[in-house]
Amino acid sequence: MAGSETSGWRELRRRLKGPVVQGWVVEANDGIIATAGLLEGFAGAGAGDQLLITAALAATIAGALSVGGAKWSEEATERDAQLATVAYEQQLLASQPEAELAELADHYVGRGLTPELAREVAEQLHAADPLAAQLQSEYGIDEIPPARAPLLTGLGAGIAFAVGSSIPLLITFVAPIALDAIAVLIAVVVSLTLTSIIVARSAYLSVRRTIVRTLIVGLSTMGVSYLAGLALLPPAG
Predict the structure, then answer these.
(1) Percent of the chain whose pLDDT exceeds 90
(2) Minimum mean pLDDT among 45-54, 113-122, 139-148, 220-229: which range?
(3) Does the model's pTM come out above 0.85?
(4) Least confident interval from 14-18, 99-103, 144-148
(5) 62: which of 35, 86, 135, 179 is 20 to 30 A away, CA to CA?
């Protein structure tokens, strides 16, 4: 029992490494930047507290649903394509196994093996699991995600966006209107810096360059949004 629990935790940690965490952080960054940019645009137009809160809340909800739905659709489409590929390869293996074996051997010849060794490797792989061998060599498919995976991915993306978006939203709730723009700016800089560090560390990137790039995008978005609000709907009075 203890061994199975340990194995389960290891599997969970494996799935939460690298690309998964990076994807969540990117979605959170999108939430921070999108909502902060919207708030700066309304602030530039002289919007009051109530309108700012309403706009930020709407951006959080709509953005989370949009991002989550798009990610679910993308992952579900990819899974459907993989399943179709599996069915196609099963048909080929059933109708022309020797041709598929030769194709696998050619793959390893192209990777640098001698024709004799490539043929031996292909035969051993086909003896163990011909479908898995063909899928990996031809399409780079190691495993088909379970049916629930696209939904969970979409939920994760939507939640990550909402978490990021909630940062400027909370600032709008608690900060006086006179300090709101400054407070949002500070919160965005701190949040984007922290998320950039997480991405850089998980992907073994330069922390400094990652922070600079992220801040340039975030602050530029906020600045342009503020100027657009100021130009298109200047405050009354």
Answers:
(1) 54
(2) 45-54
(3) no
(4) 14-18
(5) 179
